[in-house]
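PT: before anyone asks, these are the final sequences, not the draft ones from last week. 431 residues across everything. Please model them as a single complex and drop the result in this thread when it's through.
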Amino acid sequence: MSGHHHHDHDHDNHFTPIEARVKALESLMVGKGYVDPAALDAIIDTYETKIGPRNGARVVARAWVDPDFAARLKADGTAAVAELGFGGRGGEHTVACFNTPEEHNLIVCTLCSCYPWPLLGLPPVWYKSPPYRAKAVIDPRGTLADFGLTLPEGQRIRVWDSTAETRFLVIPMRPAGTEGWSEDKLASIVNRDSMIGTGLPRVEDADRGTTS
Amino acid sequence: MNGAQDLGGQMGFGPVQPEPNEPIFHAEWEKRVLAINVAAGAMGGWTIDGIRAARESLPPAQYLSSSYYEIWLAGLHKILVEKGFVTPEELQQGKPLAPAKTPKRVLKGDEVAAVLRRGFPYEREAEAPARFAVGDVVRTRVMHPQHHTRLPRYARGKRGVIERITGCHVFPDTGAQGLPETAQWLYTVVFTGPELWGPDADPTSSVSIEAWESYLEPA
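LR: through. Structure below.
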């Protein structure tokens, strides 16, 4: 064995078993002509830099300031979010679930990890993990407690199990103390969890630019 | 199938543990698994339910002890072999050893933005009117098929109300088996907490599922 080969071998051993399996799969898929490496990079770039919860936050903020948009969003979520340029893979059929003083909405996918990708990006690990998928439907208030959220006395809770290609976006209620705010400033308080139903918008987050 | 994926109502997993400031990916390989999954799906060799079925058929102990991207990787290995795109030896060695199968399409880098934006809509032209109307009381069927289904166990044999007619959508149970595409009316069906979980359940809670017409019968 030449020194050069020896070097290559050492290099390969830097991979963990899962890294090695993924590298093998990618090499094979590219080698067989099944995937274009440029497509892989474009897909990663899309979900890393272009699509995330700020999209959903824009939908919520628009619904808060524009009652006509809110009405369209309620009637046909897919068409309404398309007005803002959102839709597509993992969000072909969108339903908006409006929180009210009487009822709070909570989204789960007990069977896999269905999640409104075009509006919220890729789901967090907890959303895909057994504790959440198991507990949300049988103990929704206990699930919210895991996030430190307690609903007001008398507010019902409605859980939506995403068992089809319909994707759900919770539209939280606009918090008090935000009167006269711009749409951008409103969007800045709409965090990811408030659009899943495991959180609420936080007025104290205003203008910090975080939506995660 | 009654696999490990059907988690609704199971106990013993402990509390949900959100990760503060969670990154989008936890490792470089997760990015590659995501991208290979999306690009491989675009080949048109299986449906979204076909790949779900592949993941769900992992042995329960493996499913429950794997991270989600590990499940995706294992499911992709499985379906690529099942559909004849690769051989187990090729996966082992990471290089082509047998002639390639011709996929319906190969997603090119410059097509990604448009394809992701367009997505893959699941609504189809209806051939018959919807059997149920909003407000109808229905009962979900009791069934335990060996194949993929989207009717979770906790919601079988339960009385619910049709809240919304979503449209006529591609039927997962047959598509997952590689059978020709069919479509059925799809409904949002709401159940009370006590109907699903018994008299001790929170009466101010309710749960809905999206149910295809053949999952339902009049109550």
